[in-house]
Amino acid sequence: MPALLEARSLHAGYGETRVLHGIDFAVEQGGVTALLGANGAGKTTTLRAICGMVRTSGEIRLGEERIDGRPTEDIVQRGVAHVPDGRGTFFELTVEENLRLGSYIRRDRHGIAQDLERVFGYFPRLRERFRQQAGTLSGGEQQMLAIARALLLGPRLLLLDEPSFGLAPLIVQDIFAILHRIRADEGVSILLVEQNASLALDIAEQAYLLETGRIVISGPAAEIRRDESIRRSYLGY
Amino acid sequence: MEGVLHQVLSGIASGGIYASVALALVMIYQATHHVNFAQGEMATLSTYIALTLINLGLPYWIAFVITIVVSFVLGLLIERILMRPMMDAPVLASVGVFIGLLLIINSSTGWMFDYMIKTFPTPFPGGPLLFSGYVSGHELGAFFITLVVLIAVYLFFRHTKLGLAMRAAAFNPVSSRLVGIRVGWMLALGWGLAASIGAVAGMMVAPIVYLDPNMMAGILLYAFAGALLGGIDNPLGAVLGGFAVGIIENLAGAYLVGTELKLTVALIIIVSVLVVKPSGLLGRTVLSRV
Q1: How far is Cα B52 from Cα A225, in angstroms, rounded to an integer?
Q2: Which residue, among A74, A58, A80, A93, has the nearest Cα to A5 in the 3D structure?
Q3: Is A100 buried (19+), middle (13-18) or exposed (0-12) by CB count in 10 A?
Q4: How close A80 comes to chain B (CA, Å)?
Q5: Chain-chain contact of B165 with A90 (C-beta, under 8 angstroms)
Q6: A130 to chain B nearest CA, in Å?
Q7: Which of B168, B177, B183 sits opposite A90 (nearest CB)?
Q8: pLDDT greater than 50 at residue B227
Q9: ipTM score here?
Q10: Count of A–B CB contacts within 8 Å?
Q11: Rounded distance, CA B15 to CA B225, Å?
Q12: How far from A57 is each of A9, A29, A149, B211, CA to CA, in Å?
């Protein structure tokens, strides 16, 4: 089966600053692919490149179709949901409105209502906070809101940018437990960016390791996990 | 006492006009963080369009609706053609475009329709004054039209998907793109709506102050004072501020400074708000951690 997402010699950067120096990677249908690396390695930029949020060169394919160079809205329209760095909460709007925005591109009222119920199943806390202003949520709740908003798009591909960032260890455990459930229950493929390599390798099938804009190691997550030398030199645990 | 009541009532009537223009200002401010100085001139142009249609023999309300639609399209085009390229430009460059737009529209209306003061018809019965002589039929009618506009705008933003998308695009453009909202178009729609609201305000105020190319200059100032007083980033605040400024202006004009210095009141309000409470009465105080 062809990969859901495939990038070939992908370059990206901000203005004069180049961040990605020609990387190749693929996200297989179903399951989780992890993108690991230290601060500043280019993980967030890779996700932004997929969504057309930064200037890129090289090739990005979603299924059969090239999506590089397209505006973000068009890529989202094709079923790519991005939980961005910083969670992207609409602080001024209510939790309900944030969730309604998640399904903005959809027209199937019935399906949206069903998906909302399913999402509440993963994150019951959001049901309690439904009418509250999103800016008043805790960091963990905002992360849940961001994932819920992305799921409501009904995505083929879910991009998760550091869901553990800035959260207490217990909350991180909760969120990853839910991600395990989402992986099992939803038909969605996930590209997960994480600094916490141990958590990411637990959930992923495939993994890529980025170092200053280049992919230095790739392979099945289980193998990378077992390899003592990789763990010591790159993953730091 | 009766005099005060009279001033308050006619203050509410003109306050409604200020409230609409203030709302138009806030809509563009929320999305772009710029004050559209040309908002008043755009409304004047719309009013001239309405007058032309009426003079062509169209019934008032048909001309009214066509004017709103045409203004919407004009507002949309201005955003697409003039403001779009300015998106990442420095603030002063945008201000320059706004002022240029103001001068261009002002001079072209003068050139096309001449600078003579014209009367503008009212659709409301003139007849004897209502409420034992306090309020004219037009003032009452204009007040209701303004109210209908404000409520319609409120319902649109609160309860429709497009309204929600426009608010989202103003608050957080990056996240909005990530849920598939075409942020650029939302800005253009905002300009269109603001132009339409301004058009209604122009058509409602023209029978009171008469129509000439500079008709909205003073009104824009009062509206700006209203928007600042209520909070330039808060639509409800701007509307309440607009009404408040209308009442303050009338009372001050009657009892404090006289009609000649009324405009000064607006400037005093602007300066005092900026000095004492820059975020306005209902505005958000922006906190940021360092």
Answers
A1: 77
A2: A80
A3: buried
A4: 9
A5: no
A6: 16
A7: B168
A8: yes
A9: 0.92
A10: 60
A11: 11
A12: 8, 24, 29, 56
Q: pLDDT tens digits for B250-281? A: 899 888 888 788 888 889 999 999 998 888 88
Take residue B200 and report the two structure tokens written for it.
């209604």
A48 contacts: CB under 8 Å, gap ≥ 6: A12, A54
Nearest CB neighbour to A93, from listed B168, B177, B180: B168
Encode pLDDT of B175-208 as tens digits: 999 999 999 999 999 999 999 999 999 999 999 8
Name the closest residue on chain A to residue B172, using Cα atoms. Answer: A90
Q: Counting Cβ atoms within 10 Å, is residue B127 exposed (0-12), middle (13-18) or buried (19+)?
A: exposed
Look up residue A208 and give its two tokens: 């890529």
Are A88 and B178 in contact (CB < 8 Å)?
yes
Phi-psi region of A233 (alpha: psi -120 to 50; beta: other; left: phi over 0): alpha
Q: How far apart (Å, rounded) are the C-alpha atoms in residues B279 and B233?
A: 8
Instruction: Assign B48 to helix, strand or coil.
Output: helix
The reported pTM is 0.88
The pair of structure tokens assigned to A61 is 């394919």
Contact B178 A93 (CB under 8 A): no
The partner residue sitting opposite A51, judged by closest CB among B164, B178, B181, is B178
pLDDT greater than 70 at residue B129: no
The answer, yes or no, to whether residue B213 has pLDDT greater than 50, is yes
In whole angstroms, give the CA distance from residue A191 to residue A172.
18
Question: Is the CB of residue B251 less than 8 Å from the CB of residue B12?
Answer: no
Say what the pLDDT of residue A1 is: 62
> Mind telling me how many Å the CA of B15 is from chain A's nearest CA?
28
Q: Does residue B80 carry a pLDDT above 50?
A: yes
Q: Could you tell me which residues come within 8 angstroms of residue B59 by beta carbon, excluding any fewer than 6 positions away?
A: none
